[in-house]
Amino acid sequence: MKSSLLLSVFLRQCAETRTNFRSFSSVVLKRQVPCSPGPRGMQPRFASGGCSALMFRRHGEPSQVVELETLELPSVGANDVLVKMLAAPINPADINMVQGTYAILPELPAVGGNEGVAQVVEVGCQVTTLKPGDWVIPKDAGLGTWRTAAVVSENSLIQLPSDIPLLSAATLSVNPCTALRMLSDFQELQAGDTLIQNAANSGVGQAVIQIAAARGLTTINIVRDRPQFNQLSDRLKAMGASHVITEEALRLPPMQELFKTCPKPKLALNGVGGKSATELLRHLEHGGTMVTYGGMSKRPVTIPVGALIFKDVKVRGFWVTKWKANHAHDEKPFIDMLDELFTLIRQGKLTAPVCNQVELGDHRRALEAAMEPYASAKQILVL
After folding, report:
1. For residue 363, how many other CB atoms are within 10 A of its CB?
2. For residues 135-160, b (16+ Cβ closer than 10 Å) or e, as one string?
3. Which of 168, 229, 274, 328 is the most exposed place for a label (fewest CB within 10 A)?
């Protein structure tokens, strides 16, 4: 009975999130009614022509179903903003949306991409918080950022400070936000405490390393073994990683030697699932917490009974899209989070992940590269 109730609640929450997602998409696409002249007697200007966009009309492998198309832009309404997209990453969630396996899916046909940075080109006559030239990012998923331009509502955008670098801005709203929330919301951590994470070379993993280092935390970072392991290890340590070890080493007795030099982890961050997640749980200290935010192995998380009974570990999940939805009526936590990230960027303590910049017309190569195993660079569409 309890399992059925929990499943019912989860499905209802997913349905609510899906409704919000589709409603936002419809706002982007519908044609707006022009507003009357403003107090200065100026008529609004309207967008004309079209934009280039990466569309998918059915679900499937991204390199096969995503096509470059031309879309008509709607008119700029009273509360709308015309933006020129500058750069947009290809994230795992974007791939899953195209494949049709993500928790929320847009109505088809759809423009791919949920993250990116844009520049304001034109504003409607009732827009008060933005002006031409401002850089902005989407508040929520669903904009469809793999495109050269869009007309969106003013309240769907967040203005960025003028001193944030392009690649940091383009990759700000998903991975760094996920990393900061997981480091802040699940376990009380003090300088000198330890956390352990798998997928340490992912976008989230690199953000975790840097934010944790800024907070004085020790990080144990797990990556899959590969021919270029030493180069990857050096790069992660240059970001602030305390220890970098392979999945295979995580399961060996010498791990106990590591814990003679640092405390057992209070927090484990799991983006892989399967055996990797099980090993993270084994190394948690008594009362520690494992937070799962991804499942790249596509294997279920198996929890050792001993970890629950004798170590009283907690197992949680995190989805930044849901976090944003829960704070939609109070933007202060979101703004405060962004301000903290802006400060770290300005201080040089948080940089964008290693990126490979690709033009929109070369999208197939970028999509294929984003899905390759052992990929160490994020694909960024430069628009």
Report:
1. 21
2. bbbbbbbbbbbbbbbbbbbbebbbeb
3. 328
Type of residue numbered 361: G
Half-sphere exposure of 328 toward its Cβ, with a 13 Å CA cutoff? 14
The distance in angstroms from the start CA to the end CA of the chain is 51
Q: Would you state the structure tokens that stand for residue 163, as one six-digit string?
A: 């001193």
Structural contact between residues 136 and 159, judged by C-beta atoms closer than 8 angstroms: yes
pLDDT exceeds 80 at position 296: yes
Q: What is the spatial distance between Cα 319 and Cα 268, in angstroms, rounded to a whole number?
A: 16
The pLDDT value recorded for residue 297 is 86
Longest Cα pair distance anywhere in the chain, in angstroms? 76
Helix axes 203-214, 175-185, angle to 10 degrees: 50
* pLDDT reported for residue 2: 40
**CA triplet 338, 341, 346: central angle to 5 degrees?**
125
CA–CA gap between residue 358 and residue 90 (Å, rounded): 10
The catalytic residue among 21, 102, 293, 342 is: 102
C-beta separation of 47 from 74 below 8 A: yes
Q: How confident is the model at residue 368 (pLDDT cuts 50, 70, 90)?
A: very high
Q: What are the beta bridge partners of residue 268?
A: 196, 290
In 3-state terms, what secondary structure has residue 292? strand
Closest CA to 199 of 379, 381, 375: 375
Q: Are 200 and 276 in contact (CB under 8 A)?
A: no
Q: State the pTM of this model.
A: 0.86
Q: Return the structure tokens found at 44.
A: 């609004």
Name the residue type at position 275: K
Q: Are the beta carbons of 273 and 279 closer than 8 angstroms? A: no
Q: What is the DSSP string of 95-136?
A: HHHHHT-SSS-PPSSEE--S--EEEEEEE-TT--S--TT-EE
Distance CA 299, CA 292 (A): 12
Q: What is the DSSP letter of 360?
A: G
Give the whole-angstrom CA distance, residue 361 versus residue 103.
28
